[in-house]
Write a structure and sequence with these properties.
The structure holds two protein chains of two kinds. Chain A is mainly alpha-helical. Chain A has one domain. Chain A has 13 helices and no strands. Chain A is globular and about 60 Å long. Chain B folds into two domains: 220 residues, P-loop containing nucleotide triphosphate hydrolases (Rossmann fold), CATH 3.40.50.300; 87 residues, 2-Layer Sandwich (Alpha-Beta Plaits). Helices cover 37% and strands 29% of the residues of chain B. In chain B, the strands form three sheets. A six-stranded mixed β-sheet of chain B has the order 6-7-8-3-9-10, with helices on both faces. In chain B, strands 2-1-4-5 form a four-stranded antiparallel β-sheet. In chain B, strands 12-13-11-14 form a four-stranded antiparallel β-sheet, with helices on one face. The chains are: A mainly alpha, B alpha/beta.
């Protein structure tokens, strides 16, 4: 466990010591605030629950974008700079390396989400929403972010270059996001499968509305586990080249 | 004790090394010598636990690189040709991080850090950010990360590449200091570097071991091998060529006037320098100078690698 935390601490520190980390954080918060004002609040009168729903919808999208941008460096940058040798010659297992990297990115995502809390706080103060609704919304967004980070971690583990990792992560993430559109043009049984894996339409929507969706919890945790497992296998297979 | 047995590795269908077997005793500094592409880096990567060999075994204290990979890696310190450094960290912060990465407790790292920084001559720059350091210092930080956990075997891949002459001298001191209490394996394609710092050398060519032994043992192999000579002789040039012909066979003899002397270049099939000089003197030719055009060991190295590759 200490090895996992060591890597997580080092990488999270590297995010906060870099211009890139702060730039992503500032842009993400700016876009999220803008989305909240323009789409969430808008010009017409709305119920507080509706505004909160829109807030989590926008924040979920921004969280996925943040996940793609911060995870591309996890392994690909280490490979580009040669520092991957430090990790691969250490006594830590590939599973520990992947978990450490994943946790560092999740710490960054959590920081981003924590910094958005002033927006639902405004709804809470000026409108009528419960703390539970806000917490459930954040739980869903965090799980969505976790799935995005796991996809990005896998993409970075299989890519030699950061840009390639970002493109790969973006393609896979966008696939999960637009699944609801695909499901509209497919017939059974593909329609059912594709609509089930749709990030927003099927799995995240209940969280946006403040209801705890256990199916969604299991789904996002499964996506996270699956992609982290693939990332671990990818690192392991490199030793056998 | 490090034991390598029948080590073989293929990249796809291309053979990198085949059937390497050698042993390295404790506290020995061993040089791994070979031309570029000889298979040095592949062997070092296997020894460092970075890649798994296609066949064969590598054992340290009985631990196998494949079956006990994690424990094995804990006993190795590895410095690749380009030091792997997090340049945003301070020297001491980075070395401390690497120690913890290798499984040391914070207290152990803190107690060992001063001696490691002293061995690698980094004490004065311990608080500097790595990105501010020169290439020579960065190499030393690379060595510090490789030895912080007190490994049984330290592997240094081309440790002097890119260093200036002063830094090379300092690096040699560091390497000798390392060899006092641990086994060190140095890879290089620079022969003088290996002969300067190592107790023993392994010559690798075409993916196989062409020779191994001390510098003296390898040099002795040269008596049976080709030697290239530069001579400065006086007398008649026709008589010189006639006297040299039995030693060079069909090889050309290059004779160029140099003031009152003849500058001669010859390739001998074997090291028969004494007989050659006797024949020249017997033919009434003055021998003013006789020099090998490369160092004795270098000749042997080139001969060995040429033979194996061909």
């Amino acid at each position: 466990m200490s090895g996992i935390l060591l890597i997580a601490r080092r990488d999270f520190g590297a995010y906060l010591n870099s211009f890139w980390g702060w730039l992503i954080l500032a842009l993400a918060l700016g876009i999220d605030g803008l989305f909240f004002n323009v789409i969430g609040i808008g010009k017409s009168a709305k119920y507080s629950a509706e505004v909160l729903d829109q807030f989590f919808f926008g924040t979920g999208g921004v969280t996925l974008a943040v996940a793609v941008l911060i995870t591309m460096r996890l392994f690909a940058e280490e490979r580009q700079t040669g520092t991957i040798v430090l990790l691969e010659t250490s006594p830590l297992s590939d599973r520990q390396l992947v978990l450490g990297k994943y946790l560092s990115a999740m710490a960054f995502v959590s920081l981003f989400l924590a910094l958005t809390a002033y927006l639902p706080a405004m709804i809470f103060i000026n409108g009528k929403v419960s703390t539970e609704e806000i917490l459930v919304g954040y739980l869903g967004t965090w799980l969505l972010g976790s799935a995005g980070v796991a996809i990005g971690t896998w993409a970075s583990a299989v890519s030699r270059y950061q840009v390639l990792a970002a493109v790969l992560a973006a393609v896979v993430t966008v696939f999960f996001v637009v699944c609801w559109m695909l499901s509209g043009i497919l017939d059974a049984p593909f329609k059912g499968v594709i609509s089930y894996v749709a990030f927003f339409d099927r799995q995240f929507a209940p969280f946006q509305g403040g209801s705890l969706n256990t199916e969604g919890v299991v789904f996002f945790l499964s996506i996270t586990f699956g992609f982290l497992l693939m990332a671990t296998q990818s690192l392991c297979s490199r030793r056998w080249t | 004790m490090i034991e390598v047995q029948d080590l073989t590795h293929y990249y796809g269908g291309r053979r990198a090394i085949e059937g390497l077997s050698f042993k390295i005793a404790e506290n020995e500094i061993v040089g791994f010598l070979g031309l570029n592409g000889a298979g040095k880096s592949t062997t070092l990567k296997i020894l460092a636990g970075l890649i798994v060999p296609t066949a064969g075994s590598v054992k340290i204290d009985g631990l196998d690189v494949v079956t006990a990979n994690h424990e094995f890696r804990g006993r190795i310190g590895y410095l690749p040709e380009d030091p792997p450094l997090y340049k945003d960290m301070s020297v001491s912060g980075f070395v401390r991080f690497c120690g913890q990465l290798k499984g040391m407790s914070t207290a152990d790292v803190d107690s060992r850090l001063p001696s490691v920084l002293e061995t690698t001559q980094l004490t004065l720059v311990r608080d500097r950010t790595i990105s501010e350091l020169s290439h020579g210092y960065r190499k030393r930080v690379g060595i510090a990360q490789a030895i912080i956990h007190n490994p049984r075997l330290v592997i240094l891949d081309e440790p002097i590449s890119g260093l200036d002459p002063r830094q090379i001298v300092e690096m040699r001191k560091v390497v000798r200091a390392l060899g006092r209490d641990r086994t060190v394996l140095i890879s290089s394609h620079i022969l003088s570097e290996i002969s300067e710092t190592c107790d023993r050398m392994l010559v690798l060519a075409g993916g196989v071991i062409a020779a191994q032994g001390t510098e003296a043992e390898i040099s002795r192999l040269g008596t049976e091998r080709a030697v290239r000579l530069d001579l400065l002789l006086s007398g008649d040039n026709k008589a010189i060529e006639a006297a040299l012909r039995p030693f060079v066979g069909a090889e050309p003899v290059r004779i160029v006037a140099d003031g009152a002397y003849w500058k001669v270049e010859v390739n001998l099939g074997s090291d028969t320098r004494e007989a050659l000089v006797a024949a020249l003197v017997g033919a009434g030719i003055g021998v003013r100078r006789l020099v090998e055009d490369a160092g004795e060991l270098e000749q042997v190295f080139l001969g060995l690698t040429r033979e194996v590759v061909s």
